[in-house]
User: Fold Histidinol-phosphate transaminase from Paeniglutamicibacter antarcticus.
Amino acid sequence: MSIAPRPWVNDIQSYRPGAASGSEDGSMASNESPLGASPRLGAALADAVSRLHRYPDPLAGELCSKLASLHGVHPDQILVGNGSDELIFLLSTAFLAQGGHAVCAEPAYQIDAISAASVNARVTRVPLAQWKHDLAAMARVRADIAYVVNPHNPTGTVRSLQEIRAFAESDAASLVVVDEAYIDFTEDPEAMTAIPLVASGRVAVLRTFSKIHGLAGLRIGYLVAAKEVIAALRKVRAPFSVGTLAQAAALNALEDTGHRDAVREHTLRVRNELCRLLAAHQLHAVESHANFVLVPVPDEAGFVAGLRAHGVSVRPGSALGAPGTVRISVPTEAGLALLAEALHHVLPVNHLETCDHR
Assistant:
């Protein structure tokens, strides 16, 4: 190769996505929606197809207006992106490039660390405390951006709104970015969300349509932040990064509240059943408020390989910064039965227990 990457790029650990299994029901590695997208999506996309010869709305104005109304903010406080990952990269470009400093948990959501490293920013990783963000320790780090993934990925644990408010008021970071990709799977999303803190100017909130709305394949998410933050990000974003089909799908998802509620009900119910199934095999999941569970296992590689041999793919914890564990997405009903059969072959069955809430 005649050109070399900038020196800091060589130190970046590439993102490793979860592997799919040979079937929809057996794919439990990537936290995808077990019920898919809204059944009304086809009609919405068919209508949008007639506009594909035109460029998409560069700022997703209609979607921003609906999101602003939903969250009680001004449309200029919303930026729609090509998945929330694009927005994380934009935050790094605008606020961390060439010597900025980010603080995050260890293990981190990988894109937080990768995006910061890609612009030659410094990253401080603060180990979790009992599987949760150690906000007290993070508050001792002076940083430009603090990333708080709530619920956390890969553990599924949460910090309360009161705890995040206190952290934001500590003045340790110039901007606290709260990633709420999994907020819909908490016990009370409205009480948990940090969107009310955006008014302070010190907090920004990330959301995605990939999880509860089942639009992972269309790549669309959004950021709620102060107008000044959104204005800065608009300067560095690609002009047409969110396509027409993705915008149409997101609008449809917001309208189909029944499907969203069905996904939430399924996830909370099957998550509990999943914990009980694992406990029957003496595997105790970390208490999760997301659409997955993290499970310590005695032989990570052997466990992952054993499940794969029986048609189930899960995410190795070592790929997520949590060696000695696996992350299992909440499956379909058929997927749960498939996992039960796989576990029967991989591990002996013991007496039924409830989740070990730690």
About this structure: The longest strand covers residues 143-149. The chain has two domains: 17-35+258-346, 41-255. The chain has twelve helices and eleven strands. Residues 257-280 form the longest helix (24 residues).
